[in-house]
Description:
With about 150 residues, the protein is mostly helical. The protein has a single domain, classed as Nucleotidyltransferases  domain 2 (Four Helix Bundle (Hemerythrin (Met), subunit A), Up-down Bundle). About 75% of the residues lie in helices and about 5% in strands. The chain is built from six helices and two strands. It has a two-stranded antiparallel ribbon. Helix 2 runs antiparallel to helix 3 (about 45-70), helix 3 (about 45-70) crosses helix 4 and helix 3 (about 45-70) crosses helix 5 (about 95-110). The two termini are about 30 Å apart.
Amino acid sequence: MTEVDDCFEKGLLKKTTKSKRLALQDLAQAEFFLNESFDLINIKKEEMAAIAMYNAAFHAARAILYLHGVKEKSHYCLQKYLEEKFSEKGMLSSEDLSLFDLLRGLRQEVQYNVTRVKFEENLSELYDKAEKFIEKAKDIVKSKNS
């Protein structure tokens, strides 16, 4: 049994109706959060920029799931689904998936830490990578005939 199978068994991923409309709406949300992260980086609001950047990547990733008729209840399982279904086909690189995981970790650290987070990462570089991730998600959504 794969981790994705386990996620389905636990109800953390669920089958739903395939929807290109929802995928496109989620991509619009991804763009919104990406633009917000850009503005936040420029005014040195790093913690909020990290959260917005993760939200951008999350919505882009979730858009892909809607095409497959999958709904997520776990960010971890969302990542595992992308790894299993898109990494092996070469549609998403290990760098894309590492970025998603890194941003997910940064978001968790910022959101749940009781002290200010010191970033080792260059958020402008992460922004560029997040932008590329969203472009790949758009390509996947646009190439899928559903």
